[in-house]
Write a structure and sequence with these properties.
Number of helices: 7
Strand order of the largest sheet: 3-2-1-4-5
Largest sheet: 5 strands, mixed
Helix content: 25-40%
CATH topology: Nucleotidyltransferase, domain 5
Order of helices and strands: HEEEHHEHEHHH
Distance between the termini: 16 Å
Number of domains: 1
Number of strands: 5
Radius of gyration: 18 Å
Shape: globular
Length: 187
């Protein structure tokens, strides 16, 4: 992984390192740490009467530019992940090698996903341990998005608006961000 990161930083046109992970965002807002000065009333949390519906995201963080390629879905299946993985080469048409760092979640090794990766000769998978979130900076992308969007959010009764807000946040990150690289510890 360190060699891939070194190459991606040294030769941006030839090498790309993407960290991939899946994240979940829930309709109901989180409420922990609603701190306020003494005497100030706490914000009232609005919870929907509807079920705590979830939004699943697949995101790939470019370790050099901070660009986040993401896709939202109801559920991450092998077919949907394969479709997302099939687009990697088109994002970086000039790259000689695209390193893909991800954990060994069973869907990553599903035959449909493996077949899709096999058709992309420039993509090289770099496996990460399953329970080692500190090795995948995309985990911090989730944390940042949840702090900004899902903590005490006002859209619990309008899941479409909630989804739109989350997707807009990730769309803003698609062009790259030095601030995001600093936040996740890659700069």
């Amino acid at each position: 992984m360190e060699e891939a990161l070194r190459r991606a930083r040294a030769e941006l046109d030839r090498y790309v390192l993407l960290y991939e992970d899946e994240g979940t965002f829930y309709r109901q807002p989180t409420q922990g740490w609603l701190w306020g000065w003494m005497g100030r009333s706490q914000p009232k949390m609005r919870y929907s009467h509807a079920a705590n519906r979830r939004l699943r995201m697949v995101a790939m963080l470019n370790a050099r530019t901070g660009a986040v390629h993401s896709e939202d879905m109801d559920r991450v299946s092998a077919l949907r992940l394969a479709r997302t993985v099939s687009r990697i080469s088109s994002w970086y048409p000039d790259a000689e090698t695209i390193y893909l760092g991800w954990d060994n979640w069973p869907v990553h090794t599903h035959p449909r996903v493996a077949e899709t990766l096999g058709r992309q000769s420039r993509v090289q998978v770099l496996p990460l341990p399953t329970y080692a979130p500190w090795l995948n900076p995309t985990e911090k992308v989730w944390r940042r998005a949840k702090q900004r969007l899902t903590h005490a959010h006002p859209w619990s009764d309008d899941f479409r608006e909630f989804r739109r807000q989350v997707c807009e946040e990730f769309a803003r990150l698609s062009s790259g961000s030095d601030e995001l690289l600093r936040y996740v510890g890659l700069s």
